[in-house]
Every structure is written in C-alpha cells, then in structure tokens.
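Exercise: predict the fold of this chain.
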Amino acid sequence: MTSHKVNFLSHLEKEFIKKSRHKKPFSKKYFYPIIFLIVFISAFSFQIIISGDSLGENLERMNLFGLSVGADRALKGETSDRINILLLGMGGKGHDGPYLTDTMILASLKPSTGDVALISIPRDLAVPMPGYGWYKINYANHFGEMKNPGHGSELAAEVVAKTLDVPVDYYVRVDFAGFEKLIDELGGIKIYVNNEFTDNEFPVETVSTNGVVDTNGYKTVSFKAGWQKMNGETALNYVRSRHGNNGESSDFARSKRQQNVLQAIKDQATSFTTFFSYSKVNALLDFYKNNVETNLTAWEIFKFAKLAKKVDKESITNLVLDDGPNGQLYATNINGQFLLLPKDMSFFQLQQMVKYVFDPQQETKIKEKIKLEVQNGTKIEGLATKTSTGLKNGGYDVVRIGNCVKQDFEKTVIYDLTGGQQSDALENLKSKLNANVSTEKPDWLSYDQNQKIDFLIILGKDQGNYATN
C-alpha cells in the first residue's frame, strides 16, 4: 500500500475547472472550503462520515457544479462487498511513545446494504510482529515509523490484516498532537459528557496546568456530566484519560470519548462561522496536512461519501475485542507487561467474529455442526488435549481425542471425511492450525467410525511449537 501525505486540492481544482469550463466560473473563495471540509471530515473518521447530513449536502452541492470524481471506478474491496478501513490514533510528538497507537478501529462497510461495523482492537493485544517477535499490537505503527518514517500505518495495516485474517484496504492515521491547536483555532468545541468521572493518574510530561512542576508525574483531571465547552487542552485531556472512575478506564470508554470529540470537531468545522472564516479553514487544512496520514485518494474519499449516504447510523455494529466474561481474550502479565491473549490459543475465534461480523449467526451455524476427532501424531505429552481445548473454545464439537498409531508427524494433517462438503469449515481449520489437507485416508489410519466425524486431525510437531507460543 502506498501512503500519501500530499495536498491534492490543486489536482481537484484542475479537474473541477476542466469539467466546468463551459459553465459559470466558480470562485476559489467557495471551492477550497467546500472541498477541504469534505476531505477533512471523510478522512478524519469513518464514524463521522456516516453521521453528518452536512456532508451529504455539500457533496450534492458539488454534484450540481459537475464534479463527479471516480463515479465509475470501484473502491478496493467493493467488488467483494466489503471495504475495510483501519483507523489509527497516536499521541504524536511531545508525548511518551509518540508513535504507539492508542486507538485502533477496523471499520467495515458493506456497500450492497450500507451496513457498517466498527471493530475496536485493544492496544494490549499481543501479536507476532514481522521481524520483531511478539509485541503489543499498538507497536506496529511505531516499528513502521522507525523503519520508514512517515509510513508507520502501512506496517500497522499489514499486522492487523494478518492477525484478523481480513484485507485492510485503506488506513487513516490521526496524530492527536495537533488536536489542541486545531480546537483552539476553531474557537473550542461543545461536547456532551455522558459520565462524570475523575482521573487521579493522568500523566504529566513536563509541568502541571498551573505551571508548577509535578514531581510525581501525575495530575488529576475531572469532568462533569452534561454539555461542556472545551478548549484544546481540556478536550485532549478528555480523550487521553485512561484511569478514570465510573467505568471510564477501559479502552472502549476512551474510544467512545474520542468519537464524541471527533463529532464535536465535525460540527464546529462545518458550522456557518467556520465555513466563511479563512483562518479556521486554514487551521483545518494545516491539521490535515500535518497530522493525517492516509492512502485514500481524492476520488476514493468522494466515493465513500456517496456510499455513506445509504448508511443507517442507528444500526451500526460495534464489536469490541475484550477480556470480559464473554470476551474472546484473557489478561496476563509476562515479564511485567500487561498483555491480552486469545482464549483459544490462536486468533481463529477473533478471525471468525470479524469475518462474520455482518452475519454472526452464520459463524455459529458453521461451527456447531462440525465434528472433529483429534489425535496426537507426536510424542509431545498433552498436545491433543491442549489443542482440542482451543478448538472447543472456538465452537467446534471435538467428539474424541487420543494418540495416533504413528507419532512421527512433522506437520499437522487434516483428513477430510466429508467428501468436500464442508469446504468453508475445512479452510477455517486449515488456517487455524496451519495444516496440510488430505482427502485420501491411508490404510493404517484408525478412528472412531461409529461417530459421524467431519474431520480427523493428526497433530504434528509444528503444532506443538505453535501451541507453545
């Protein structure tokens, strides 16, 4: 994927002028605010794209002037009826770990129906990082920046795609360091605070708000419920707080606050006073150029805005990957590091949830009817039991476990006993176990033929290494 940090407004202007040369001239005084506000709102957050009538109104206004960018071109993922956008938020310069992504959301759009799913990825999820070993997933952008400055989002998109086993078509990364200045330039924003909370462990990088050095490295921030007018510093504290009481300490709660701030910025950015203020429009332009990285091009943003008009914002699916009682992850501490790991010892269950996010019942139906027998094809003690536990947690029906008559398997093998009738389930198991597949059963192969088994799994040494990790 190619990253773009360019000002494509000049390109749009040329295309607009070319298409409307025989029409009444259109002043730059109006062209730049309209175009930029559409671009800014669209690229800034997928949640904002689908929640504002003003965006659709501005887009229709542009159509009246003959601007139809990319109308006959397909977005990535559009032909397969699912477009995935990775939304990233990082602290930026002046903060500890400036390139660690505190916010990671995979936004999925189903063009045929207008369905939208927002999948929140916890920053503490431990994943294999190409070339670095196992790290928290929010390090992907950091490692990408260290290797190729300005292109950290590309590695983050690659890691998320591999972890969740879905293509990441686009990414948008926002550097929160520019928030404070932007909000102040807009004259502040109005936010409705849903829950009153206090955070006594808010980090202080340099000095406290009253100018006194905080030797403890922390200060207290608090917010009352209801409508509030926030300046840049207050709004930034609101979105960055991690240790608030009243249920505001989770990553999910913080993501909701960030969405509230994005919505408030969108409302202020598209207000009448901003629209005709060059200083405010310039502030938006500066923020976009300096604080947003994306591989979305101009025509793609316009196409997204058109697709977003059919989205019902009241029916958006919010999927949170967490370690709750019904969650898919569990919390652990390794070498002093708080980490989240999958309960099924692989990312298979997470991948299935993401794959069927628009049809969760289908995920359940596919797995409920699949019966497995698991045999240990190695001398690694307990391998069949350990692996079958993961498969059961993933929703499969493991009817029998045991030892294989041969225990010299290097590679895990799945024997398909369905005659090819369960191809989706077979592909899922193959991906989960990184296994070979065979439809031919050797003469020595023994299994319980009284059970209606769909797949016989013979575990190899490679599965032992995989399970150990």
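Check your answer against the key: Confidence is low (pLDDT under 50) at residues 1-44, 48-67, 206-215.
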